[in-house]
Backbone:
């Protein structure tokens, strides 16, 4: 008992002033190692369906590449010095990685937050909301990277691109996955239901795919639209990843990475503040 | 059965000292205040809970019970007051305090993506416990929840009572000193409730401290050493259940209902009852000696009545003028 009394008085002595509610909401992210159990929880669920997940990760890009690359591509001329199949494959790896991160941080995260109340359960433990958001971003990034690796294997297997430089694309894929996850978590924190998620996909994500040079070069767009599109995170990702897959060094790698980091950091902080606002009340 | 439980509660209640010694206090809440918009949900609420006690927050839905718990856990920023949980100031060091706290939330939020045993494993990890330690604890936790045979079942396969027991076991995975329970038996059938109550008594016997919210009078009477009756965010009475009733309420209650009950109440000889409350279709007659009232009722076959000892609902009715089951 006396030790409790002691620790109690110590706690009082070092206790800071109670922060005002706004200060709590907008506080800088407080990352801790406690995000790891959140990551592991999602990983454990993923592992339960390992076979199905890997299979879908391989089959989906395979269908896209065979149908559009071989089928449609055979009717098209080379694009920027590469066959259309190569152009498409190096673009759609970006699209798949982005989709993987977005799905996990929209439907997956929303189910855990709202439907299953998994986050509420975690918040009753020493793991905090900051740990949950970080764990979710880290997991979505991991899952996006797994998608990217599976796709790269398909690209290698089909002989579309076999440059060792393509391995350098992996860190870019991971960084992009983290950034796209953070963006999606902003939507998640404001969603009123699954419809919000679908609307975001239709209004934001799908148009971005068509404006980011996945299916055709940005140069094909009207000049004004191309100028805007260059600032899209997916365009930056494609701009960095495509040359690496096709065996060249990207021209604007630093700029592309800086843009992705900026998007990721800004969205992560915003998502954190909005999620705190939603759940800490 | 009822009389039996009263005596059991009384014996626990008499063991607890009314004013806890400062060093024994595991949860100390002073002048807690929480305002949402223009609504004051918690209005200057203070209480202190000594180690090993079962303390109940009793009040109707919307009285501020859950908000109070969320403030104590550091999940809600209070607008005023001070909280100290296990020696840690909350919310500043709520994370450190939560290491030694268990929570049974009002709504089950077990993880439907996992089996029963996996739920315990995954939850233990959130406390930073190593897998080996959690796996070592799982068999005892499953025994405690009477779920050993359901170890590998999915959450969707469990009944409501089983889910509640698993939620309780999950709250114990970190071997907490203090367990918060937000309406632990709401929505359960009587058998399942009794099983939960029995488990809670086991926890108290092991020296755990329990903070319980409930809107069930009988639950508070059975389990709590002390309780606070709260209404509209403020504490309107506090003490051991039986003592509170003894202090505020006549020992006997005759509830009269059926056709003409309210008319009968209007015409009754006021010398027979010391206090009369009419709520809805029911007349509540409070008396030190109920015999004259009962004799009067014998001759009125249209009226139905129930003679019972006074309980917390009567206390609430007296203090607020409303029945507990009313939504606030």
Residues:
């Amino acid at each position: 008992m006396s030790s409790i009394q002691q620790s109690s008085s110590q706690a009082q002595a070092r206790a800071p002033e109670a922060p005002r509610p706004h200060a709590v909401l907008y506080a800088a992210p407080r990352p801790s190692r406690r995000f790891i159990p959140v990551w592991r929880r999602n990983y454990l669920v993923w592992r339960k369906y390992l076979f199905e997940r890997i299979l879908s990760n391989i089959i989906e890009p395979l269908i896209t590449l065979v149908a559009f690359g071989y089928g449609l591509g055979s009717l098209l001329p080379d694009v920027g010095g590469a066959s259309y199949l190569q152009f498409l494959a190096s673009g759609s790896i970006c699209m798949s990685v982005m989709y993987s991160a977005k799905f996990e941080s929209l439907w997956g995260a929303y189910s855990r937050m709202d439907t299953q109340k998994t986050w509420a359960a975690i918040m009753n433990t020493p793991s905090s909301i900051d740990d949950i958001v970080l764990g979710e971003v880290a997991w979505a990034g991991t899952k996006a990277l797994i998608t990217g690796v599976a796709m790269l294997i398909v690209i290698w297997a089909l002989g579309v691109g076999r440059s060792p430089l393509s391995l350098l694309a992996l860190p870019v894929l991971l960084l992009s996955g983290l950034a796209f996850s953070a963006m999606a978590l902003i939507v998640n924190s404001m969603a009123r239901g699954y419809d919000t998620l679908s609307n975001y996909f239709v209004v934001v994500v799908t148009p971005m795919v068509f404006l980011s040079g996945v299916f055709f070069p940005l140069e094909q767009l009207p000049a004004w639209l191309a100028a805007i599109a260059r600032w899209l995170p997916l365009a930056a990702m494609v701009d960095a990843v495509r040359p690496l897959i096709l065996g060249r060094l990207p021209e604007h790698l630093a700029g592309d990475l800086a843009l992705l980091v900026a998007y990721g950091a800004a969205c992560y902080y915003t998502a954190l503040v909005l999620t705190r606002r939603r759940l800490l009340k | 059965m009822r009389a039996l439980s009263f005596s059991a509660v009384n014996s626990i209640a008499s063991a607890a000292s009314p004013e806890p010694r400062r060093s024994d206090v595991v949860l100390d809440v002073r002048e807690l205040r929480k305002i949402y918009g223009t609504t004051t949900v918690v209005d200057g609420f203070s209480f202190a809970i000594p180690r090993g006690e079962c303390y109940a927050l009793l009040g109707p839905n919307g009285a501020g019970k859950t908000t109070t718990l969320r403030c104590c856990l550091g999940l809600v920023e209070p607008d005023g007051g001070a909280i100290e949980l296990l020696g840690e100031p909350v919310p500043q060091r709520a994370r450190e305090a939560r290491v030694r706290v268990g929570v049974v939330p009002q709504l089950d939020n077990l993880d439907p993506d996992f089996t029963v045993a996996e739920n315990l494993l995954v939850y233990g990890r959130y406390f930073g416990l190593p897998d080996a330690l959690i796996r070592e604890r799982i068999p005892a936790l499953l025994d405690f929840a009477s779920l050993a045979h359901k170890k590998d079942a999915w959450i969707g396969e469990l009944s409501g009572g089983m889910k509640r027991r698993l939620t309780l076991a999950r709250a114990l995975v970190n071997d907490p000193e203090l367990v918060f329970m937000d309406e632990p038996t709401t929505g359960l059938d009587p058998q399942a409730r009794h099983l939960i109550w029995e488990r809670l008594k086991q926890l108290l016997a092991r020296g755990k401290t329990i903070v319980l919210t409930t809107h069930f009078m009988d639950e508070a009477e059975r389990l709590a050493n002390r309780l606070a009756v709260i209404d509209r965010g403020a504490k309107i009475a506090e003490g051991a259940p039986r003592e509170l009733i003894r202090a505020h309420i006549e020992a006997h209650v005759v509830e009269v209902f059926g056709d003409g009950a309210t008319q009968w109440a209007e015409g009754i000889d006021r010398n027979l009852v010391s206090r009369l409350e009419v709520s809805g279709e029911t007349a509540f007659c409070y008396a030190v000696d109920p015999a004259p009232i009962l004799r009067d009722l014998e001759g009125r076959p249209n009226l139905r009545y129930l003679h019972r000892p006074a309980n917390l609902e009567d206390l609430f009715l007296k203090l607020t003028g409303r029945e507990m089951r009313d939504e606030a």
Summary: Chain B is about 35% helix and 25% strand. Chain B touches chain A at residues 22-24, 36, 51, 73, 75-79, 82, 84, 86-89, 91-93, 95-96, 98-99, 101, 103, 105, 107, 109-114, 118, 122-123, 125-128, 174 (CB under 8 Å). The longest strand of chain B covers residues 25-36. The two ends of chain B are 31 Å apart (CA to CA).
